[in-house]
Amino acid sequence: DEAHCISDWGHNFRPEYLKLPAYQEAFGIEQILLLTATATKRVIDDMCTKFRLLRENVFVTGFYRDNLFLQVSPTTTSEKEDHLLQRIRKAPQAATIVYVTLQKTAERVAAFLVRQGIAAQPYHAGMQTVERERIQNDFMQGQMACVVATIAFGMGIDKRDIRRVIHFDLPKSIENYSQEIGRSGRDGEPALCEVLANRDTVHVLENFIYGDTPEKTAIRRLLETISGNRGFTWEIKAVRLSNELNIRLLPLRTLLVYLAMEKVIRPKFSYFEDYAFKYVSAPETILSLFDGERKAFVAAVMEQCQTKKVWTSVDIPAILDSYACDRQRIITALEYFDEKGWIELQARQTVEVYDILTQAFDGDDLTDKMHTLFKKKEALEIQRIHDVVAFFESDSCLSRQLAGYFGEKLDIEKCGHCSFCTSGQAILEHTTTLKPLADYDYSDVSGAFSAAIGDSFSALNVTKFLCGIYTPAFSKLKIKSLPHFGIFEHYPFLEAKAWVTQMVKKRPESLN
Question: What is the chain's alpha carbon radius of gyration, rounded to the nearest angstrom?
Answer without folding.
Answer: 27
